[in-house]
Write a structure and sequence with these properties.
CATH class: Alpha Beta
Shape: globular
Helix content: 10-25%
Distance between the termini: 19 Å
Radius of gyration: 13 Å
Order of helices and strands: HEEEEEHEE
Strand content: 25-35%
CATH topology: Homing Intron 3 (I-Ppo) Encoded Endonuclease, Chain A
Number of helices: 2
CATH architecture: Alpha-Beta Complex
Structural class: alpha+beta
Strand order of the largest sheet: 3-4-5
Largest sheet: 3 strands, antiparallel
């Protein structure tokens, strides 16, 4: 599982927009510095592949901003829009 330190090495997160961007080129031919990270899955959640593992962007937002995983909780969007990962739109609920 990725650490907050590793996440911050690879990505920037803008809490006002909810968007993650790559800080540095990765081994991927697709991801370039400044590109928006991840894609939208079939359910509507943004997911980001880091070091060969997929993570929901909402959970990465929590890790990025607080330094810890929301263990035992789900990250929900207050407005119900699954790709709206602005910090002010995220809240925890018991899993």
């Amino acid at each position: 599982m990725i650490t907050a330190e590793r996440l911050r090495q690879l990505l920037t997160y803008d809490p006002a927009t909810g968007i993650f961007r790559w800080k540095a080129n990765t081994n991927s031919r697709r991801a370039k510095t400044g590109d928006i990270a991840g894609n939208i899955n079939s359910v509507g959640h943004r997911r980001i592949c880091i070091d060969g593992r997929f993570y929901q962007a909402s959970r990465l937002c929590w890790l990025y901003m607080t330094g810890s995983w929301p263990t035992g909780f789900r990250v929900r969007r207050i407005n119900g829009i699954l790709d709206d990962n602005r910090w002010t739109n995220l809240a925890l609920r018991p899993a």
